[in-house]
């Protein structure tokens, strides 16, 4: 009968503390970026997720060492780790919000998920993988985020709300003005205006894609000058549906 090497199933208190501390540091580094960006899952959340997954991994590997000699017990260190990966989804789902056709929080949900994976790596002693993964996540969240904003800052979605006189041809004129300034209509919604209006009015809610900010502002100015436009408000939306 093969002898069992008990050394691989044990861990010193010092190494246990070191792994938990490293887990808190790595999770906190990623959480700092989310906290600075005012996202739902921030500094403390990422630390707790990373610590929790590390603790579960440590439990899975070393918590049942006294049972390895039992003939009817099969020790599987990956079993609890698999449950962490599938179970962390509820936190990610809580960070995702939908506003019409725009979805926010996907990046935060992904960061929570990858922090759990980093915690499992630390708990299992796979330090190289944990450190490289943390470095790549920070590069993605900090550097790539800045590059993304720099290159697509003029290609954002905007939300326009127009109250206009309910007259044939007015909406077509607005669409033509936007098209002349390279502004593409992504979504449109029309609701009735106040029933007390004379003449009757409608409220048009537009989601538009802007290529150049200067042209967009020129289009806003020309639309505001139209005689059938009663009011106009504008707001920005995330440049991509996976933002946040």
UniProtKB/TrEMBL annotation:
Short name of any one Pfam family annotated for the protein:
MgtC
Q: Which GO cellular component does the record give, naming just one?
A: plasma membrane
Q: Which InterPro entries match?
A: ACT-like_dom_sf, ACT_dom, MgtC/SapB/SrpB/YhiD_fam, MgtC_SapB_SrpB_YhiD_N
Transmembrane feature ranges: 16-33, 45-65, 77-96, 103-120
Which residue range or ranges hold the ACT domain? 159-234
UniProt keywords (A-Z) are: Cell membrane, Membrane, Transmembrane, Transmembrane helix
Give the highest taxon in the source lineage. Bacteria
Q: Which Gene3D superfamilies match?
A: 3.30.70.260
The record's subcellular locations are: Cell membrane
**Primary location class:** membrane
Whether Membrane counts among this entry's keywords is yes
**What membrane topology does this protein have?**
Multi-pass membrane protein
Concerning its family, UniProt says: Belongs to the MgtC/SapB family.
User: Which protein are we looking at?
Assistant: Magnesium transporter MgtC
